[in-house]
Design brief:
Elements lengths: L18 H8 L10 E11 L15 E3 L2 E8 L1 E5 L8 E5 L12 E11 L11 E10 L7 E10 L5 E9 L19 E10 L16 H5 L11 H11 L3 H7 L13 H14 L7 H6 L13 H16 L7 H6 L1 E9 L7 E7 L2 E4 L6 H8 L3 E7 L5 E12 L3 E7 L1 E4 L4 E4 L9 E3 L6 H6 L6 E13 L2 E8 L6 E5 L2 E5 L1 H4 L15 E10 L16 H4 L11 H8 L2 E7 L1 H6 L23 E6 L4 H11 L8 E8 L5 E6 H4 L5 H4 L4 H8 L5 E8 L14 E10 L4 E11 L4 H13 L7 E8 L2 E4 L17 E6 L3 H9 L6 H10 L43
Parallel strand pairs: 13-16, 25-29, 30-34
Antiparallel strand pairs: 1-10, 2-3, 3-6, 4-5, 6-9, 7-8, 7-10, 11-12, 11-15, 14-15, 16-24, 17-18, 19-20, 20-21, 20-24, 21-22, 22-23, 25-26, 27-28, 27-29, 30-31, 32-33, 32-34
């Protein structure tokens, strides 16, 4: 029931009964800008006996607004999430307005409840209504004495009430310490609700995304999964995909007969594009990244979207040459510009050079809009006494003009620059406007402009790639117009409709505060209106047959009894690695219950081995060594991973310590099934953790005596991400804060004195903060396999901004949202981060973390 909070407002001279003035002053305007009002209704509930409200019956009379029934209620409320309820519905238990002994509780809670359409729809009928609610508690005699606060929410049968469980401290109801009269006087008080219902053409305004949202059903399109920090890749692929021309070019590349997409970039890209056309859910770029020669850890390294675009296009261009696609990709993205020097006194003389470009980087600072930036780009400067050819020193004009623009015009806005005063890179949050249509004829050379009057150089905005964040990190979002009729927002695996105002005004930048303060357009894509091939459909007709109907995997028919007999001889070992822990955004160490097929398998899933039950540990260790590129066998060891009594999965003990009476030498000849029976008798699957031994400790006693194995996760509130950060061996008798500070300095690049919080992941329903970091690990009752979650201290302003955006402010709330999601590891509300730069950029960045450092490398893995 966490609302999108706005800062609480105290008393003023404005009367609650002056609806227009009160709403204008206290109802936030930015959250509903661009939406048309259906109805604004003020309803006041006069409570004449505040102290006599009965438990569970404190409900206001009903009132209607915009064709829906509403009511207000105060209470002291608690809530209990019930995972066995369909769709993870919330069961609320409303408690009494005051304690049993007659005393008031510590706070007053206020909620706005929508009871559905006024026409009497059934409780199971689908309905939803987006509304702002402004609450006010005021003195019944003097309505200028009041306290107010606001929410916004999409009400529906599953989430039919929304409000504050801490609207006002109860002790303030009768207080006159800061006001001439109390709120409750003579046992009377007014509770007023101002309900503002808006028209929502998108159908998703202010809704919560707890896992039941279907992008395909809502928009007809699907998103792309984030493999760690691949948001920069996802937004670019969506912008290219919806040109229609780009998929057609890629489908012309011959790939028939190539069986391994992870070794062939064109084949992997064709399969990805076809999946975007046909899939019912978000698709994966795993094959594509493998074709670049990337390992999973490379997907955690964030890059600038423009940097990736250039390398990606160059990589594709080399593979297209000599194919039926020919120069079509270059023709699609390449334009020509002319750099010139021209004597002022002899304008007919000119020294020039024609260059090809695939993108333009435009200035933002001190420029109002795109036209001004293009004029700045093509402006001339005077150079005095320049030795010009054989004409001697001349005063010359130096400038740039364009000979042609490509059909697909990508413009990068220079939002990041070096600040000499601070000796650091900064992000420019300046307001910078751009139009839906632009005529580029004025930026062409006079000769070209005169020759091409019959074909206008008018371009239509096709996509906006936005960066939400600062120099140290942020989130990439793509706004794309797929059919020239509507705009869609692509937030990794989630696709939602948006109104035009969000595409334009919402990304112009220049907001000093609020949820859009760090958000601004970073890349603009314009398409020439006369380039019909970019709009014509359907592109499905161009899909090669071997992509549309891939050959079935060869399989041998096996009789059921033979299969059962064969299976009885085998077992499965699931091996948790540093990679799976690093990628994991969820409970426990890894995603143990994900898809089994390799293509769909999450990077956070353990590595699975199917082996004979009679295989020895010695043989299995060699198998693991070979699987991980001949990892030396003396450089790693195994820990047993068990299901604890509280139903969490944790590393338990070094394998030789998990089986009583077994020494390491004795254990090495034990069968894997015997080890499973000793460590995990309750399951047919043996779970292990692959522990890499640091080079300096190989050959020494390991784990170090007196230490416990502790796993660290990192919660980044600004990115709404949670990742596995590291594992450490912590001395039991050392203080938690003393041990963690240098670890976090190395892993996250923090100063040694950086303030941080520590939470223990006890179980999904119990995430507890460790308040005293001066206590030792032993005093805090931490043992082998425990998981700690780290969060940097955030300011009260950052907390308010996060609440205003409906985002989690700490791991407790973030874990709770994950618990409500149908599947672990699912992207949560607000959890999507881009590139170009990144906040407190960690060495191993968070799954949606970004950094402007790093070089994109697309390797040659083709065979």
């Amino acid at each position: 029931m966490s609302p999108n909070l706005q800062p609480g407002i105290k008393d003023t001279s404005i009367s609650v009964r002056d609806t227009a003035a009160f709403v204008d002053r206290y109802m936030p305007k930015d959250v509903a800008e661009g939406y048309i009002t259906r109805e604004l209704k003020a309803f006041t509930w006069r409570i004449n006996q505040w102290s006599a409200l009965e438990p569970g019956e404190a409900r206001s009379p009903e009132f209607t607004c915009a064709g829906f029934k509403w009511r207000v209620y105060p209470s002291r409320a608690c809530f209990d999430y019930c995972p066995n309820t369909p769709n993870y519905l919330i069961r609320r238990i409303y408690l009494v307005n005051r304690a049993a002994d007659g005393r008031y509780p510590s706070r007053v809670s206020l909620y706005l409840e929508c009871m559905g359409p006024a026409g009497g729809a059934s409780s199971t009928q689908e309905w939803s209504v987006p509304a702002q609610g402004l609450f006010a508690i005021s003195n019944a005699v003097d309505p200028t004495i009041h306290h107010s606060n606001a929410i916004h929410h999409r009400f529906n049968p599953d989430e039919h009430d929304w409000g504050f469980n801490q609207f006002l401290d109860t002790e303030l109801l009768a207080s006159t310490a800061t006001r001439p009269r109390p709120f409750v006087e003579n046992d009377q008080v007014d509770i007023t609700a101002f309900v503002h219902v808006v028209q929502d053409p998108t159908g998703v305004l202010w809704r919560t995304f707890f896992g039941d949202y279907d992008s395909k059903k809502t928009t007809g399109h699907v998103g792309i999964k984030n493999l760690g920090s691949t948001g920069y890749m996802n937004v670019l692929l969506q912008a290219l995909y919806f040109t229609n021309a780009f998929p057609k070019i890629i489908f012309q590349i011959p790939t028939e007969g190539r069986r391994w997409p992870e070794r062939n970039t064109p084949l992997a890209l064709q399969r990805l594009l076809y999946s975007l056309m046909t899939s019912e859910e978000a698709v994966s770029t795993l094959e594509l990244t493998k074709s670049f020669g990337w390992k999973p850890i490379d997907c955690l390294i964030a890059h600038d979207v423009l940097e990736f675009y250039r390398v990606f296009i160059d990589n594709l261009d080399t593979k297209i040459k000599g194919t039926p696609a020919g120069d079509s990709l270059r023709n699609m993205i390449s334009g020509k510009m002319k750099s010139f020097l021209r004597p002022i006194n002899m304008p007919d003389q000119e020294s020039s050079r024609i260059e090809t470009f695939t993108d333009l980087q435009l200035n933002v600072k001190n420029l109002k809009d795109l036209n001004a930036s293009l004029r700045d780009y093509t402006s001339t400067e005077t150079i005095e006494d320049y030795p010009f050819q054989d004409l001697g020193n001349q005063n010359v004009l130096k400038g740039i003009t364009f000979e042609s623009f490509p059909p697909f015009l990508l413009l990068s806005l220079k939002r990041f620059e070096y600040d000499i005063a601070t000796d650091s890179m900064v992000k420019l949050h300046d307001r910078f406007e751009y139009p839906a249509r632009i005529d580029l004829a004025e930026f062409l050379s006079e000769t070209v402009a005169a020759q091409s009057k019959s074909e206008p150089w008018v371009y239509r905005l096709h996509a906006v790639i936005s960066h939400d964040g600062g120099i140290h990190g942020g989130q990439y979002l793509a706004y794309v117009q797929p059919d020239r009729q509507r705009w869609l927002k692509f937030d990794d695996d989630r696709v939602t409709p948006v109104i035009e105002r969000e595409v334009f005004e919402g990304n112009f930048g220049g907001y000093p505060s609020g949820p859009n303060s760090g958000k601004s357009a970073y890349v603009l894509v314009y398409i020439r209106e006369s380039a019909r091939e970019f709009w014509e459909a359907p592109m499905e007709l161009d899909v090669p047959a071997h992509i549309r109907n891939p050959p079935p995997t060869e399989s041998k028919v096996v009789k059921p009894e033979d299969e059962r007999q064969k299976n009885s001889k085998f077992m499965t070992v699931k091996l948790v690695t540093e990679q799976s822990f690093t990628f994991h955004q969820g409970f426990d160490l890894a995603q143990f219950d994900g898809p089994k097929d390799e293509e769909s398998r999450s990077p956070s899933a353990p590595t699975s081995f199917r082996i004979l039950k009679t295989e020895t540990l010695e043989t299995f260790k060699s198998r693991v060594s070979d699987h991980f590129d001949e990892l030396p066998e003396d450089s790693f060891m195994f820990w047993s991973v068990i299901l604890r009594q509280n139903q969490t999965i944790r590393a338990h003990a070094p394998l030789h310590g998990s089986i009583p009476g077994r020494t390491p030498d004795d254990l090495i000849i034990q069968t894997m099934d015997a080890i499973r029976s000793s460590t995990s008798p309750e399951t047919h699957v043996l779970r292990l953790y692959l522990d890499r031994i640091p080079p300096g400790l190989q050959g020494s006693p390991f784990p170090p005596p007196g230490c416990i194995l502790v796993f660290l996760k990192y919660f980044d509130a600004s990115q709404q991400s949670l990742i596995g950060l590291s594992k450490i061996y912590a001395p039991r008798t050392e203080k938690i804060g003393v041990v963690l500070a240098p670890v976090l300095q190395k892993a996250l690049g923090w100063p040694l004195d950086e303030a941080f919080r520590v939470y223990e992941e006890i179980k999904p329903t119990m995430i507890e903060r460790i308040n005293n970091l001066k206590r030792t690990f032993e005093q805090s009752e931490l043992i082998d396999g425990d998981i700690l979650c780290i969060q940097s201290e955030i300011s009260s302003q950052e907390t308010s901004d996060l609440k205003a955006r409906g985002l989690a402010t700490d791991p407790v709330e973030f874990y709770e949202r994950m618990r409500l999601a149908p599947t672990q590891g699912q992207t949560l509300p607000g959890a999507n981060l881009p590139s170009s730069t990144g906040p407190k950029a960690p060495v191993v960045p968070s799954p949606k973390h970004t950094s402007q450092l790093g070089v994109v490398v697309l390797g040659e893995k083709e065979k």
